[in-house]
Write a structure and sequence with these properties.
Number of helices: 4
Largest sheet: 3 strands, antiparallel
Strand content: 15-25%
Shape: flat
Structural class: alpha+beta
Number of strands: 3
Strand order of the largest sheet: 2-1-3
């Protein structure tokens, strides 16, 4: 999971390469939030996230944005497929060309 923070600050007055003092700079920072354990079917993503935030003493601030990878949501929902059960077909050549796993591409065409 990633926390993004938008920071707005005024430029330093002594720096002549900066915009006028009434203009603002905007910056986006990405701060990864690693979870202690892997997500398993039935896990509460919110609880895992809060636990990790408490352990790392991280607090959200106004304007912060939380980004959660879809893979984590799928795992918590139990929406996983064993790739060993997937057989690739016509997508194999395309996957090889782009150095991808053909089973993952085949999976996407079935769901």
């Amino acid at each position: 999971m990633i926390r993004a923070r938008r920071i707005t600050q005024r430029p330093a007055a002594e720096d002549e390469h900066k915009p006028a003092s009434n203009e603002l700079h905007t910056e986006i920072r990405l701060i990864p939030i690693a979870l202690a354990n892997d997500i398993k079917p039935g896990d509460s993503i919110a609880e895992k996230l809060l636990q990790s935030l408490r352990q790392k003493e991280i607090e959200f601030e106004p304007g912060d944005i939380l980004v959660v990878k879809h893979k984590i949501v799928s795992k918590a929902e139990g929406r996983m497929v064993d790739l060993a059960t997937i057989k690739s077909s016509a997508s194999a050549a395309w996957a090889k060309k782009y150095k991808l796993d053909a089973r993952v591409i085949q999976l996407g065409s079935h769901y």
